[in-house]
From TrEMBL:
<feature type="domain" description="NERD">
    <location>
        <begin position="41"/>
        <end position="157"/>
    </location>
</feature>
<dbReference type="Pfam" id="PF08378">
    <property type="entry name" value="NERD"/>
</dbReference>
<dbReference type="InterPro" id="IPR011528">
    <property type="entry name" value="NERD"/>
</dbReference>
<protein>
    <recommendedName>
        <fullName>NERD domain-containing protein</fullName>
    </recommendedName>
</protein>
Length: 314
């Protein structure tokens, strides 16, 4: 039972909107594009595990992308699965190539096809910290904390693992159902009833706080480097023109009366939920009276008068 479904991280949703609009001559263009590609591949990797979750017990409680910000503890778990006998943390890695792990040194080395390589810290140290924080979060609620086990799963289809020593918890996605079934047998004594597991799951879900990131500020993006306009809602390659109270694509000739709604949603993701007439005029590339009319129809509320009036995009 999924009680916290997977959600696209807000940073990725913002990068998806910003990257195609960012001018190529912007000094931060390459950094922003790289971050977008990195976050997209991470998210795709996490999602790719959903297929294998179908082979796991459906009676377990699933929380995807749980993020808790509590007292001194902030932690994020890619996937958390609650069984009556064990809690399972799944940490997803999306590296491709040959992945070498040494159980003695804890060094993780990823060698790409072109021969270049990168070293990473021991993923089990991070896992141990997550386990500690989760334990600390559960303890005050009076629940017996069950065994918390961590699996580090490499989700990329081109990942080949080479482990020096014995480490059954560093696996590729395909191994997931088998490893989970082994763990269920290992921890065979139920600690909770299903109702109790559900209760803990709901408590954790209530503590979930998605990370909100202001990409424009973080990446130091200048507003003048963001391309204005209403993307064609059909071909998505050109900006539409406003004619006769309608939007039309100069290339594919597609017409869409509501194309500005998508553009204003993109504006909200990039710059926040308030917008002035002058900003809408510039962004939608329309005369001021058109901007005013569209904002009045679209926004949920407004505050202030005349030029300073700010509309709220919901
Ligand atoms: Zn078009």
């Amino acid at each position: 039972m999924i009680i916290l479904p997977q959600q696209k991280p807000s940073s990725l949703a913002r990068l998806e909107v910003i990257t195609p609009r960012l001018m190529k001559h912007s000094p931060v263009y390459q950094d922003v594009r790289n971050r977008y590609l990195r976050e997209k591949s991470g998210y795709d990797g996490e999602r790719s595990l959903n297929y294998y979750f179908n082979f796991l017990p459906q009676s377990a409680i699933y929380l995807h992308g749980l993020r808790v910000e509590e007292r001194q503890y902030t932690f994020q778990i890619d996937h958390l699965i609650l069984f009556p006998n064990l809690f399972l943390i799944i940490e997803v890695k999306n590296n491709a190539g040959l992945i070498k792990y040494n159980t003695e040194t804890g060094v993780l080395k990823c060698i790409k096809r072109d021969g270049t390589y990168e070293h990473y810290g021991d993923p089990f140290i991070q896992a141990r910290i997550q386990r500690f924080k989760l334990k600390k979060l559960l303890e005050p609620s009076g629940f017996n904390v069950p065994p918390i086990h961590t699996l580090v799963v490499f989700s990329h289809q081109d990942a080949v693992l080479e482990i020096e020593g014995h480490q059954p918890d560093l696996i590729i996605s395909q191994r997931l159902p088998w490893r989970v079934s082994e763990l269920e047998q290992k921890y065979s004594t139920p600690i909770f009833s299903r109702d109790e597991v559900l209760k803990i799951g709901k408590m954790l879900k209530n503590k979930h706080k998605p990370k909100e990131e202001n990409i424009i500020e973080e990446c130091n993006i200048k507003r003048e480097h963001i391309r204005a306009g209403v993307w064609c809602t059909n071909c998505k390659k050109f900006m539409m023109k406003r004619t006769n109270r309608n939007w039309e694509c100069p290339s594919c000739k597609h017409k869409d009366r509501n194309a500005h709604l998508k553009a204003l949603e993109e504006y909200r993701l990039m710059f926040g939920k308030t917008i002035k007439n002058s900003e809408a005029r510039e962004f939608l590339q329309v005369p001021i009276h058109v901007a005013k009319r569209l904002l009045k129809k679209t926004s949920s509320s407004y505050a202030g008068e005349t030029k300073a009036r700010e509309y709220t995009l919901s």
